[in-house]
């Protein structure tokens, strides 16, 4: 058993463990953890400085998760799945949910309805066959994004099988992997894994740092290993209330990412996912942060600020020429040129 697998075996998985470690009353957390799984790696736990800090809020259950009346699947992923675990929203690319497990279950997760549930996901051999068959039969697909859950929670043999079968499809030109393990379980990024990934270029990895304090020495080493293997690294940050909704914090995060060879790619407006409302910020806050980045730091440190529009209609970059505000309503235009009304929730 490798180190990263042993680390998974000693994760915090119960509110009582949190209560004992931090000296808090765990009782309010118990019903939340029953509804939405709890798992925190020892690495990420070591980065928390005190209860309520920006890292605490990303991983510790909060009773407000049970008070949100939004939809569990506002992006309509299930309706856009031609076979289980495969999401085909854009003409030339698909998202393949190859795992439904993560090293850590983030409280803001867009797939809270699925992660940690053994009946969800696309990791079984039959599901792999179905997804590969669909991709092979759909010639328009040139870009496959492996997501989940976390694809790097698969063992090397299974991951290698998936990558090898994708690489054998002539019209698949590139593969992307979305993963948070450089942040939450950096021990997973082994030299063996990097040798495996290096076989399947062009391959891109997008990771998920949300706060400067997540860029810890082990995470820096993990990103260096991937970059040294010739893998371009990007980062998708979620704009989170009380965590990174501050222009100075976000600018520092973007600058530190570039320093470890990770290119900022997206800042996501928080999705309208059930159980995540307390993380949501006004759209205006995101535009304020973008104004603080543009012209005030390197263009390389300036990602796109996007809303993933409800109903599965795609990501919309928030720029002056594609977003108009009317009270609490925004009028957006997506990649098809369709006009979309996006209503901000009550953030009081």
From TrEMBL:
Q: Return the Pfam families for the record.
A: LAM_C, Radical_SAM
Q: Which UniProt keywords apply?
A: 4Fe-4S, Iron, Iron-sulfur, Isomerase, Metal-binding, Pyridoxal phosphate, S-adenosyl-L-methionine
| Residue span(s) of domain Radical SAM core | 88-308
Q: Which cofactor does it need?
A: pyridoxal 5'-phosphate; [4Fe-4S] cluster
* The keyword Cell membrane is annotated on this UniProt entry: no
UniProt superkingdom: Bacteria
Keyword field contains Amino-acid biosynthesis: no
Per the record, the similarity remark reads:
Belongs to the radical SAM superfamily. KamA family.
**What is the protein name stated in its UniProt record?**
Lysine 2,3-aminomutase
Q: Which organism is it from?
A: Geotalea uraniireducens
Q: What is the lineage of its organism?
A: Bacteria, Pseudomonadati, Thermodesulfobacteriota, Desulfuromonadia, Geobacterales
């Amino acid at each position: 058993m490798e180190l990263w697998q042993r680390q998974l075996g000693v994760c915090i998985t119960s509110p009582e463990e949190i209560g004992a470690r931090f000296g808090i009353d765990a009782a309010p957390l118990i019903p939340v953890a029953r509804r939405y799984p709890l798992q925190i790696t020892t690495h990420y736990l070591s980065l928390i400085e005190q209860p309520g800090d920006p890292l605490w809020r990303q991983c510790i259950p909060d009773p407000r998760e049970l008070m949100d009346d939004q939809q569990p699947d506002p992006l309509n992923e299930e309706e856009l799945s031609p076979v289980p675990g495969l999401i085909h929203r854009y003409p030339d690319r698909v998202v393949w949910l190859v795992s439904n497990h993560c090293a850590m279950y983030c409280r803001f997760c867009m797939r809270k309805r699925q992660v940690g549930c053994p009946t969800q996901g696309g990791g079984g051999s039959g599901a792999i066959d179905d997804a590969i068959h669909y991709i092979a039969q759909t010639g328009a697909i040139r870009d496959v994004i492996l997501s989940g859950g976390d694809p790097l929670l698969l063992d090397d043999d299974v991951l290698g099988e998936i990558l090898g079968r994708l690489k054998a499809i002539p019209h698949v030109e590139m593969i992307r992997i979305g993963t948070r393990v450089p942040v939450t379980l950096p021990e997973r990024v082994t030299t063996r894994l990097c040798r495996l990934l290096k076989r399947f270029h062009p391959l891109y990895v997008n990771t998920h740092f949300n706060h400067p304090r997540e860029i810890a020495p082990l995470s820096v080493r993990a990103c260096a290993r991937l970059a040294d293997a010739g893998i371009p690294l990007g980062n998708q940050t979620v704009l989170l209330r009380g965590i990174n909704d501050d222009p100075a914090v976000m600018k520092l995060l973007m600058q530190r990412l570039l320093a470890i060879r990770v290119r900022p790619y997206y800042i996501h407006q928080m999705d309208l996912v059930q159980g995540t409302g307390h993380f949501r910020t006004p759209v205006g806050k995101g535009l304020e942060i973008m104004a603080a980045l543009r012209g005030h730091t390197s263009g390389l440190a300036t990602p796109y600020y996007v809303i993933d529009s409800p109903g599965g209609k795609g990501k919309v970059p928030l720029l002056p020429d594609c977003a108009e505000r009317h009270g609490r309503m925004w009028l957006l235009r997506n990649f098809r040129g369709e006009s979309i009304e996006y209503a901000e929730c009550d953030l009081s």
